Amino acid sequence: MSKNMLLQRNSCKSGIWLLQKIKDHSICSSFDCGDDDLNDYFHNESIPHKEQLIAQSYCLQSSTQLGVPVALLDFCNDSISFKDYRSFITNADVKKYPSLPAVKLTRFGVNQPFQQHGVGTHLLNMVKALFMTDNRTGCRWITVDAYSHVVGFYEKNGFELMTDKDKDNKIRAMAFDLKRFSPPPNFKFDIG
Ligand SMILES: CC(C)(COP(=O)(O)OP(=O)(O)OC[C@H]1O[C@@H](n2cnc3c(N)ncnc32)[C@H](O)[C@@H]1OP(=O)(O)O)[C@@H](O)C(=O)NCCC(=O)NCCS
To answer: Can you list the domains of the chain with their CATH numbers?
Structure first.
């Protein structure tokens, strides 16, 4: 887990996998995760969001197939308000803060040919490692507004539902406590 100076800043390498900020958005053009809204966002909306400093897109590639967008994801800053999620924040160590710093995984999709092969899970571990290592600003949680039909995937990856109030909604608020991250056996990574 040493710092690798050859890696681009804010990137993560793990085995054959390389997660880094998208510089050339043409890599998104062949992306299809099977969800029209997500596809449209990565094809057409990610650049304007980046230009407005609202979000930042990242791409997962394999060193065996550089140029192929295995997965695309997007982040922005977030905070969890203690007032809104009183019953969710049970950790005694953080109850004294009115809000908790977080990063929101605003969009996330795995390219269809790579789905159901453990890529999404491995990528979430890389994301956790990226935000935990040398925490650039205080950031305790990863939040996600999850499609209700994908809640099971996030739960398998240690995310928890934050409230019951949205139980009938198509989108559920979920979060992962980075302090609880314990890398799986044999999970190795380098952070740039
Ligand atoms: C949801 C998604 C990111 C999962 O990535 P993936 O690489 O296919 O997932 P993995 O192979 O790592 O799956 C890990 C586990 O989660 C389960 N899982 C995968 N997708 C799931 C889903 N939609 N609902 C419930 N469980 C799911 C898998 O069966 C697997 O379970 P197992 O460990 O018991 O075998 C991917 O399928 C995708 O991009 N879907 C379309 C876009 C989307 O819905 N994005 C999420 C927006 S909130």
So the answer is: 12-182 (3.40.630.30)
